[in-house]
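Forgive a beginner's question, but would it be possible to get any protein sequence you like and the tokens describing how it folds?
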Amino acid sequence: MSDTPVEEMSFEQAMAELEQVVAKLDSGDVPLDESIALYQRGAALRKRCADKLAEAEEKVAAITLDGEGQPQGTTPFDPQ
């Protein structure tokens, strides 16, 4: 497991560590206290991944296309 704070991780880093956490928890060979800590870390990693995906979706949704379907710029993201 990484010592990097979750909020500083890239999507790829967070996903890789989340996979490690899940594998370790699935093994069933982890003491209860460590399982709780792993679960908490996993929850934070899952949130980081979801947040990074939402950011990417906002950027993609903000790309505007011209009449020929070519990107011409961006517009502010409006979630509504």
